[in-house]
Every structure is written in C-alpha cells, then in structure tokens.
C-alpha cells in the first residue's frame, strides 16, 4: 500500500494506492495540522510520497506523523532541473513550486506531446511544455478566491452583502454582483486567452487542467481535459516507485 499526499495552501489531498489503483482518498483543511487531522493513516505503507507547498512547519508535522508509526520515512518531492523527460526553464529550479513541477511531469508523461498545464487552485498557474519536454515558461495569477479576498481587503468602500453562486459575466446591478461577475469576467478572459494561444501560436498543444476550480476552467475551453489528481500523479515520476 502506498500513501500519496498533496499539501496545499488551503487543503491537503491524499489517496491510498494498492497495485497502482486508488483504493480510497480524501481531503481536509491544511490548518487542521495545527489541531487533529480527521483521518487515521495507520495502515503499513511501502512508500509515503508527499508534495507540499504548505510550508516547513507543516512539512515537519507530516514527517513526524509517520516517523514513529511507519517503517518508511515520508519522501518529499522537490523541483529539479530535469526529471521524467521534462526540463525546467528556471535558472534556479527550486524556486518553482513543487506542485507546478509535479503537474507538469504528470501532464507531459500522460500527453507525450506539447501541452499546456493549468492548475486552478488558490493561485492559477499556466505552463507550456514543448514536444521535447522543455518548459517554455508560465504565468501565475490569483485564483478566484484570492481575487475576491484581495479586492475586498484593500478596498474599504466595497461592501459585498449578497451571495452570488452561479457563474455569470453580465454587468452587475448591485455591488455583490459587480464584484462576483467582475472576477468571473477576468477568469473567462484568461480562459479565452489560453484558448486563443492554443488555436494560434501553440496549435496542437494538449490542454490539461487540474485544481479546485479546474472543472470551471475546462468547461470554458473546447478540448480541455480535467484531471483532478495531476499533482498527485506527478509524485511517482519524482519520488517513485
């Protein structure tokens, strides 16, 4: 049995695998590491693979969690200059978030061709990989929730007092709608820009999408494939088997 963990800024996702098949999975808030995590990982594991951008304090808690209960140590993935056919474009590869790196490893080795990898989490990352596996660079922008938080925390006169649940880009007729629809408008514009690149200068690139808001992004771009576990899927390429 193998345990894989993706510790993000907001959530921790995990899954257990037997013979490369997922047997169960779950998620909880990253901040729950400060209290009690709502899951018991007491099964003997042959490997524990971890992707973490949650910070050193959380990493230490993850390592300590298994140091006494398991016969194997947790293996933490790190961003590398080159791995599994993908070459990092950064002069200092470790400056790239390991979640981006793992998503690219999984995407390229799934597509086996040029691809665009979009991860819609707390931040939205967009990365391009050419047919040889060379990372061509990417973008990092605030995710939907960060956009809203950033706007409201830095603008005292904006008051959002109504719930807006549907994805709508029509001009808002009250402040709550104007904020929500405005953020949706930017999200749609981003999706349309990616779609335009894939129809133009990067025609033939396969679009692979992951992250909590990934299903929405994928629905806005024809031909997109949504893969909820892309970061976890990258672990085997980095610290497996």
Termini separation comes to 12 Å
Computed Rg: 19 Å
Q: How are strands sequenced across the largest beta sheet?
A: 3-2-1-4-5
Low-pLDDT windows of residues: none
Assembly state here?
single chain
The general outline is globular
Count of helical segments? 6
Indicate the structural class: alpha/beta
Proportion in helices? 25-40%
Mean pLDDT rating: 92
Strand content: 25-35%
- The SSE order reads EEEEHEEEHEEEHHEHEH
Number of strands: 12
What's the main sheet like? 5 strands, mixed
How does this structure look, described?
The chain is α/β, with parallel strands linked by helices and 241 residues long. Strand 2 and strand 3 form a beta hairpin.
Summarize the model shown.
By secondary structure, the chain is α/β, with parallel strands linked by helices.
